[in-house]
Structure formats: C-alpha cells, structure tokens
Amino acid sequence: MPSTPDHAGDAAPRTGPRPAPDPDPAGTATRAGYGTVLRVPEFRVVFAAHLLSLLGVVVSELALTVLVYRATGSPLMSALTFALGFLPYALGGTLLAPLADRLPARRVLVGCDLVCAACAAAMVWPGTPVAGLLVLRCATAFVAPLFQGARSASLADILGPGEPFVLGRSLLRMVSQSAQLAGFGLGGVLLTVLAPRGAIALTAAGFLTSALLLRLGTRDRPARAAAGVRSSPLGGLRAVLGDRRVRALALLCWLPPGFAVVPEALLTPYATGIGAGTVALGVLMCALPVGAVAGELWAGSALTGRTRSRIVAPLACAAPLPLLVWAARPGVAVLLVALLLAGLAQAYTLGLDRMYADAVPDELRGRAMTLLGTGLMTLQGVGMALAGAAAEFLPVHAVAAGAAVLGVLVVPLLLLEVRAAVRAEE
Q1: Distance from CA of residue 186 to its chain's centroid?
Q2: Are 335 and 284 in contact (CB under 8 A)?
Q3: Rounded to 5°, angle at Cα 364 from 228 and 240
Q4: What residues contact 215, with CB distance under 8 A and at least 6 apart?
Q5: Sequential DSSP letters for 246-286
Q6: Is pLDDT at 16 greater than 80 in this prediction?
Q7: Which pLDDT score, from 0 to 100, does residue 186 have?
Q8: How many CB atoms lie within 10 A of CB 194?
C-alpha cells in the first residue's frame, strides 16, 4: 500500500445549510432499472472485480478454518479464524478511512487487492505457522473496509450521482449477499478436490485478477480531497459524524441490522431446541438473505427513486415486526415466513442509501462510505456476541424476541432524529 502523507490538519465538518443535490440524471420520477448501470463498461469491470474478490474471501475463510483446525485440532482456534475478521475490520475502517479521499480511488483499490493477494500467497506457503495464518487473516480484514469504502465512493464518479449510484451500490450489495451463500457451497466443493492451501492459492489468483481488472479497466481519477488537506483518523470521524444529519442517517444504517442479526446468530441453538434437522436449519439460514435480495431487486427494478425514498420510513419500521413471532417459539414454517418477510422489508435500503449519499459532501464521500461499512460490520459483530452471551442465561427465543422489540422501539426514534436534522438545516 502507498505510504500516507504526514498529518497536517483535520478536515472540518461541514456547517451551514446544505445545498440541494444536483438533478438526478436517471430521474427520480421515472423508473431506472439495473440495466442502466450494467450498460456502463467501467461499472461492469468493477462488478466483475467485486465478484472475484468476494468469492475469494468466502472460499479462503472456509479453507483457512479447515487448515487451522487440521493443524491444531482445536474447535476454538477454528472459530477464532472467523472471529478475527471483526476487530481488524473495525480498526482498519477507522484508521484508514481518510485514505479513501486523500488518494486516487484506483490506486487504493488496486493496492488493497495486491495486499490481499500477497497475504493469501503467504498462507499457501507450507512453512507458515498457525500464528502467522491468523496474522495474515487479520491483515486482509484490516484493509477490507478501505477497499469497500473507496469502491462505493468511486461509483458516483463512474455512474454519476443520484439514482445510478444507488442502483450500482444495490447491485454490489445483492451480489455480496448471494455470493456469500454460494461461496460456502463452492468452497465446500473445492475442498473435496483440493487441499485447503490449494483453495487459498485460487483466492490469491482471484485477488490478482481483480487488481488487474481495476488497473486496466477503470479510469485514473484524482483524489477527492483537495491537495494539501490532511486528516487524522479522529479528524475523519469528526468530519463525517460531527454532522447531525449524517450521524442520524449512519445510525439508521447501522442499528436495525444490528438487531436483525440476532435471530440469525441464534438459529442453530433454536433449531436444535425445537428438534429441526440440518436441512431445515440450512433453509432458515438462507431465508433472511434471500428475502433481502428479493426485496432489493424489486425496489431497484420496479420502483422510481421518489417511491424508494417514500418507503424508507414505513418499511424500516415494519422490518422488525415479523421477528416478534419469536416470542411465541414458532415452528420451522412460521419462522421461515417471518424471516423472509423481514428480509423483504430491507427494500428500504435503496432509499436510505440515496439519503446518505445526498447528505455527505463530495470531498468526504470516501471516508463516509468507509465508516458506514465499518460501523455496519462492527455492530453486527457486537450484536452476534451480545446475543450469544444473553442466550447463556435466557431462553433463545426470548433473546431473539427482545432484539426485535428493541428494533421496533429504536427505529422510529432514529427516523424522528433524521427528520429533525433535516428541518434544522432548512
């Protein structure tokens, strides 16, 4: 990765009334589907690179878990391999966020891919000890939020602001959810014909291919931050979250998924408790992400930008409601429907993306998108951990229902804060 310039002052938060966003070239009153963004050649390159690197991450996580377990025989060490992704992600997103604006996006994206390819290649070397494997796992998680934030911010340069940006982010998000489901299946198949190190070697090749695609298939645009402007990590946090409207929207992006992840985290012990088999558990685990992809696909394909903005509040409030069914300790069929409905309600994320993008100044877009992804991952990890701890002392269904109740109470308060912040700026 390129070295960062020395600290020379923090970017100040934006103050005063925020100007209205530019007219949407896709039209907020007309329907603009995913085909609009897929017809942009540069976006297709980003899309292909995203798919390659994402599948690589999922396959390598599975292969690395198997490799560590075979080397140590310890279930704890195997589980730790997965868990190690959360803390470095939070640290990396906080410390590296300013680079998303201070450096050209293409340089950041290619550099992150090369770091991940080098880490994967080092994992393949037979002499790498288990401690070294875990350190390399942390290194890839450390740069991941910078890559994701820089890529999200660059979509506005590639596609234009407004609805094309929202639809581009939506496509990448749906691919992420789908690839995570398919990636574990693909990884399992690969591990039947390849040793774990062989599967990780394919991951390294995927990262290298992604870097090559981004280097040759995307334009070299200048950094968004003005020349000579520097920002420390804390200064970057203040610059983004010091704005009341941006902070309220960030919390609205972070907290509801933090509550929604609790039922997912507790599905295995719950299914065991009601006597459901592994097939039923697998179907339940897929229900929420499948519903989320379907809801987002519907919102992006069938609704106008204006309608997507209007459904943010009602769907955000409705999303936790189906999960209240956990209080009745439901069977598999009822729980499956509830999870699908909760996933479908995630269609509001497209409108929320547009609201967040409009609220962030252009010169802070990179770090704002980096911090958005960092907070989301961190709070989901915290939600899982707290759910597991609570389930040690309380019935599983009660913990899941309690998380749903918190979601029902918190989301309207966040929406009121967003409205108050908008009115304060007018």
Answers
A1: 21
A2: yes
A3: 115
A4: 106, 110
A5: HHHHHHHHHHHHHHHHHHHHTHHHHHHHTT--HHHHHHHHH
A6: no
A7: 64
A8: 15
